[in-house]
Amino acid sequence: MVNLSPAKLVLLAAHYAVEANIPGLTVLATRHGNVLRSDLLLRILLTYLPETLPSSKYVDLIRQIETRSFPDLSDDVVDPSPVEGFTEQEAKKRVRKLKLLPLTAPEGLEEAGLDYEVAASLLLSQTGVREGDLHLVGRDLRGLISPWLFDERRWRKAGSNQESTELCPGWGEVLHWLTIQASKDWKVAVSAFQRWDGPRDADLAGWGSPQLTDDQRAYLEEGYARAALASAYLIPEATLEALDGAYILLSRAATLHNLEPVPPLSSAVSLLPPLTEQIPNELMSARNLLYSRNDLLSTSNPLTAPTDGSVALLQALVLSAHLLSKAGCPCTVRRAAELALLQDEREQKKGVLSLIRAISMNGPKSDDRYWIKARNEMLWLRDWGAEDGWGAAETAPRGVFGQVKKEFLEVEFLKALLASTRYNLACNIYEESPDRPLDEKTLHDTIYATAMAAYDNSSNPNRHRGGLKKCDEIIKSFPKTFPPSSLSAKKVEALLQATHSLSDYRLVLKQGEPFTPVVLRVHTDPIFIIAKILEQNPKSYTQLHTLLDLGNRMVEAGLTAPKTPSPSQPIPDEASQRALTERRIISLCIDAALSEDDFETAYSYVINRLSTPPLVQIEDNYSWKAALEAGKYRRTSRTTLPTHLGMSSSANVAVRHLEQRIDCLATALRIAPAATLQEILSAFRLAEEELDALVKEEQAKEEEWDAKGDAFRSRSATKYKPPPSASSTRSAQLSNTARHRSTDDDDSTAPMSLFDLSRASMLSAQRNLSALSGLQRAATSLAGTLTSSGRNSPAPARDTDSPRGSLDVGAAMQKQMSNASATSGGSESGGGQQQKRVRKRDQLREAAVGTLVSGVGWLVGATPPPREQRDW
């Protein structure tokens, strides 16, 4: 054994410490304890021992130094070569240069007296600061907190001597730190619970196993499990990742406290386990909602108590929040607890509507499996799977939608299916399924309301596009609920047909706003829309049949019925509505025709449509007004000319117009109420006065014309007697010329129809009526003279056809005509002595009818009757 001076022993110990030569240090401490005192040796270790050296290498040496009990190392040899070359002076000089660290650092004096609150925070101040160090959170807790808790000085007793409970205030601070991390940075808390199994998971650096009593261990484990459940409630984010972390926390709590194991989240979301039966009734109280916000670590908090019931409740809440967030309705665990514990029906309905809206917007609309899964999840959120478990009928729904009726959920989901055009799936679930979720009436009303919503949201009145097409498809997708013969289906079809009819017209109800179908359905007076059509579409009044059909469709669709009927005014039946609508539309068309100066069309509608009373008794205030307006109409230069005059009408357009006005006023008199007759009678009297004045004027002109004709023919017959053939030819030419002139004066542009030809013949006969009458009397007188003179035998052909014979007959007829003119006044007053004169009107009618019959016969190629059989 080599004798070394104290200075060289200190240098050798420092050298061994630098080299981490623990056996050499142990030998020096054993043999030279009088020089290498405990404090000196510890300072050497603290200063020169490498930090990378595992603590397990030198823990035994420190324990031996503290207890001064070293093993027997008499046979071990110390190598003094590192310090043999130093002289005593050099060794002392080097010892003085050693800067050994003190065992008690000056900067630690202030922290030496800190209590457990600051101590716990100080120990964990750097834990989880950087996101990349999350995997080290478990190491810090295992190496810092667990050894610190095993110190007996961290524990104190509470309560009486008989029933005392050991408490660890420092452990409470650790749990508080964990919950704070959950609310601030939930990833740190989740990592801590994942990587640290609690106080029993301690890194004592080889100092042995933790020494705790059973009560202490139970106290620590229960607090740790409670902190895990509390941290799940405190996670503030509603992301799927955060909710996955909350599910990890409750799963760890169940595992650490030996509770019923919790299935993985993926399995739970797929299977949707029934959890209602596992949750005690006392946990579902509304007053427990306060415990989800305050006193989460309190032993009196039932929500965070590590029991199977609290774990099942938290599992249901986390799954509910996860399903809602996945669908597109972000929801935290605490929000799910509010919905489930408060049981506020209004808030739950808002949540249902938000969920269904998110399902419709975010998912693949064409995937039926997606919709089926979404429906199952929605129903699970109502009762947490109670229908799948035993005793479902006796258990009230407890889910986040527990206060919402199942019918409400099904109705809203059906609306979403129809809005997303999943008609076949909706029909399979709600109409063809054996256990139909909705009764017939509710199903009918829901489908009808959804179809009308699609109709109201459409912007195009074409039934083959947009919302109208969707409305039609919705109704036809449920043939059992809406058979074609049902009243509802007929109403919808009539509404679609009426709306589609409007697509053919230009229609603007408000300035700058195009017509939309919803206006038709909600308008208090849909016939007003037809009035707008007539106003904005020229000549549309000529489409009376189309407009009447549109009105009938409005009646069938129920649009004309009062929107808010009163008890004093019952709703009229459909027949009355149809009759009144028809009369009103006809009246509107009459007014439109008059506004466009088409009196002929208005007159036709009045005579053909309004003169016949309706089959049902209605209060009609439209027809008589329209007829009255037509009767008041006066011709202008813009008035549309008639296409034909007709057989019974006057050739004078003005007279004919007044006659038509009187007809309209007569119709108004027949259909108007008694209180309005005075106004109509006044208009009627004025029209008659105008007609009488025109007729008198026309008769005066006719008499003047007849007188001029008679005088002209008398002078011509006396002055010049042409041959019969020439006279006949010239008369025919004059007749043709007069006829053409008359026709050209009446209508110089329109082609002459068969009826116009008859009218022209009538006018020609009217102008030459006096000459025809005189000719007839002359012929009769001549025939009598010939008979009395014995010349009643048949004459030879040469006599009748010779110019002389013709001249004699013509002279006789002319003479007879002169005599007839001179004695016309006496013949009229003679009564029974002379032949009764044929009335001018009858002769005119006979001439017109004869011309018409001959013309029609010529047109069809019929053989004319013999001359003696003709009575005209």
UniProtKB/TrEMBL annotation:
Domain Sec39: residue ranges: 10-108, 114-705
| Pfam families xref list | Sec39
Disordered as annotated region, ranges: 698-752, 784-845
The record's GO CC annotations read: endoplasmic reticulum
Subcellular location per UniProt equals:
Endoplasmic reticulum
Single Gene Ontology BP term?
Answer: retrograde vesicle-mediated transport, Golgi to endoplasmic reticulum
Q: Indicate yes or no for the key word DNA repair.
A: no
Q: What is this protein called?
A: Sec39 domain-containing protein
